[in-house]
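Give me the fold.
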Amino acid sequence: MARVLVADDEPLIAMIVEDWLAELQFETAGPVGSVREALALIETTAVDAAILDVRLIDGNSYAIAEQLQARDIPFVFATGRGSDELDERFKNAPTLSKPFDFEGLRRALARLLPPS
């Protein structure tokens, strides 16, 4: 079962995403609400993909994205502000526009983790 890191500082959103991941037969790593927690989790837990809220309680999630890229782990940014506000380094990264629904999450994960 693939493990997906969930980094979102809104507990209700994180819980919903965790429920949706379970329904889609994914294991959740986290959820975590801060950059610090996410970076620590990546160091100790194998993850296959990640859903990153752009803004977390202690800053943006770009440091997490950099660590994931260095490990060749796919991720999607979740944002309510649109992909045009992403840092230039991540302009081509996949995004989920908030609010997203179950089907949007399913499609995003299918692109990140295509069936083998």
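The radius of gyration is 13 Å.
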